[in-house]
Write a structure and sequence with these properties.
Length: about 120
Amino acid sequence: MITRVSAEFETPELAENAIYRVREKVPVRSANMVYNKSSDEAVKLRNGTVWTLLPTAVTSYNYATGLLESPATEDVIPEPERRRNTTAYIMCEDENLDTVKSVLNSMGGLNIRERLSR
């Protein structure tokens, strides 16, 4: 029988390392991971700058605006976009199930679950 094992990790890098270790130890049918791709954009924004446009009063001949520059902080990026939780899915044979679960656990996997596949 084939079983699908899923485990949650804090970052995509940890999930990649765990999948690599599992593939070193036992033969697997497939292994992939799913994570919030918008978190990559949030990581890029951390080192950036936020520009705020400040409109001023309209004069008779021109319209002047002010531009305020400030560094981007964690508060600028909403919490769901900052979260980089990753779920790794590994499909393997039943005889390798205990080894896969122990490797995922040792690599920092949380909520390790198994589900029988058809």
